[in-house]
What we know:
The complex is a heterodimer of chains A (466) and B (388). Chain A has 466 residues and is of the alpha/beta class. Chain A is built from 13 helices and 18 strands. In chain A, the strands form four sheets. In chain A, strands 1, 2, 5, 6, 7, 8, 17 and 18 form an eight-stranded mixed β-sheet that branches. In chain A, helix 1 runs parallel beside helix 6, helix 2 (72-83) packs across helix 3 (89-99) and helix 11 runs antiparallel to helix 12 (342-356). With 388 residues, chain B is mostly helical. Helices cover 61% and strands 0% of the residues of chain B. The longest helix of chain B has 29 residues, at 143-171. The interface between A and B is large, with 56 and 57 residues.
Amino acid sequence: MTAQASSHVDVVVAGGGNAALCAALAARARGATVAVLERAPQHMRGGNSRHTRNLRCAHDAPHAYVTGVYTEEEFLDDLLGVTGHATNHDLARLLVRESATVPDWMAAQGVRWQPPLAGTLALHRTNLFFLGGGKALLNTYYARAERLGVWIRYETAVTDLLLDGRRLEGVRLADGTVLRARAAVIATGGFEADLGWLAEYWGPAAHNFLVRGTPYNDGAMLRLLLRCGARCAGDPREFHGVAIDARAPKYDGGIVTRVDAIPFGIVVNRLGHRFYDEGEQLWPKRYAIWGKLIAQQPDQIAFVVLDARAIRRFIPPLFPPITAPSLVELAGQLEAQFGVDRQALVRTIEEFNRAAAHNTRIVPDVLDGACTRNLDPPKSNWALPVATPPFFAFPLRPGVTFTYMGVAVDAAARVLRQDGVPFHNLYAAGEIMAGNILTRGYLAGIGMTIGTVFGRIAGTHAAAHA
Amino acid sequence: MRDPDLAREATRQLTICNACRYCEGYCAVFPALELRQTFTGGDIAYLASLCHDCRACYYACMYAPPHPFAVNLPRTLAAVRTDTYRRHTWPAVLGQLHSRSTAAAVVAAGVALLVTLWAAWLAGERLFQVHTGPGAFYRVIPHWAMLVVGLGLGGYWMAVWAIAGVRFWRESTTGAMRVQARALGLAAWDVLRLRWLGGGDAGCPYPTERPSQSRRISHGLVFYGFLAAFASTTSAAIYQELLGRLPPYPVVSLPVLLGSAGGVAMIAGCLGLWQQKRHSDQAPAAAETLGSDYVFLIALGMTNVTGMLTLFLRQTPLMGVTLAVHLGTVAGLYVTAAHGKFIHAVYRVLALVRSRAEQRTGHLPLEVAPAARHHAGAIDPDGSVPPQ
């Protein structure tokens, strides 16, 4: 029995990313008829999950696809650490506990993993990598959902929730039709693609941000839920953003626009001034702060400047660096293209080079203490003079990855009303409720863990209404 | 590369892939890519020949068309392969047969027809008689005539392959690299088990998106069938030159058993590859390579069909005709092998050797490394390995 072209289903899932598909598969496994309503066209399906690569999960022993041990306690500690304990502890513990069961469940859906390659990295202890990344994961989920008879509709936006008090009766679609449902799971992501909404908190600066992921995460469902009386969770002002190449497209540039050059060079703003310690910490611990740092600079733009010794130390980015045989010429190019103060930039670099002149070598993957002397702001590690031609620069802008504000939920993933009482049959999963747990900060792969764990919970509970 | 637009486009796409690296678990191409920051034409040719056209990366790519980044690596690398085959062809004028499949088919068919007619003319009135017993074949078509075709055209084929292989090996930036015995052994194992046609255990999204082992099976039939036929020819040469026994050989003999097993396997494999090609998703395919693929499948299939017919009809008056036609199709196959799709074998093997030789650890995707090294520092926080 499928829900094909019917005006009534047991479970309607709004959204088409990781959380939505996990909810749909979990509900279908319980025998419910399920409709997935994805706003995007088929080739753009999957929201920001398309751009992900791995998920974080607790495990007591190494196996073929993960190295070492990552206990539930350590996972929870990491989460408490990045959020400064500002988290819903019950949901956080539930997430961590359930994360241990996620890999087997995913494998049962047909998901394949990438083995840790030789010379691999720290993340392979805590995170499992999907073979081929997030889009491949979604392809697997969609193919399985289709095989199991889940009704999937693309370019289908939910515009209204039909509520009778605490009970949802159905949803209204953009074409005006009504789809009746016994329960609904809302898994439509954050609101980072609506820069106008971010501008309410960040002012006009927000319009200079670039959106790393899908243009479809405009938060329309989040607005709708809040309007229907859902309680807000997470800080509306907060977003996770990183430094990406300023030449990247406005939307959907994804992983390739990232620039990992900052620890090996110096970063200046349009006035030609440095504004933060580029060598403060190991890059994985600091890369997430640079989006906001650049958001606070004039015109929300900055430039990482490097010399020939530094250029090969990081993964080559998508766009070629701006290149010149001398610092003066590089500064001239940055002035011509971006209006950088040429003279101030040259002065800044000369000043930096004097403060770093005593350093002759660096050790890239440890805090090597090769710092500047008498410089404000300092560069605490890896401070080599920018002095070996040719010289390079990458223009940087804040790249918004995701927002934190969402709706409050209980342990069954039911959406809570303002008064703390849950809606009877309305569930939320994924980025739209991640702010209950990850209120701030960043843990690689936790968004996909939240989507998978709460997608499953929401789908399972929603199916019980059938 | 001959075509500057193709060189630019391949560089553009590979740069995107090298910044992303999500596909590094699929095949040997991405780990090889990650060892490089810039690409010479030779590097791109090498990466293209390492690509087995499984298309997993295409379906996994968030930048695939209609995304503005428009990444379609299988299609682009297929076009690069054709360009590479053309550039390294000796004699140069025949290089265009790689991209002009109709001309390639006409040349191969012409050679096949000429050799058939020449063999029939040599046979004269003996063509339609029944011949049995040792030396029966040579009473229809003289031994020296078969040697002219086998050693002459076969030698030409080998020369074309050898020249292409040397030119290809030299043009990559690491052309002067030393190949360790271990790398050679690993590469041989990769070749013998058709390592990268399997997509791990789950299969490859070929001919369509659903993972399947069908191409690995069909290609395996052709590959092992070819090896069996080669072994059959070798054993027949031993029988004849060392043991003094002339063909035809009994059904239960090494040459016939190996030859017929190889023949049946190759026919089945060619039919399978043909079917898959016909039904394959065209979005990640390069149109210009398809014709060349079909020409080779026809040439190989025909050679095996006529060989099997010769076996079945060898005691009838039709033996002479089928033998002449078989000799003709063999000649046509040799021309196709030198100037068609079959040459991918040279490039593929050399690319696999290079790939194993330049991986310091010898490990490649889908093979779990024993103890993964723990990196703490200058890594991409989203999980890629930095340049060393």
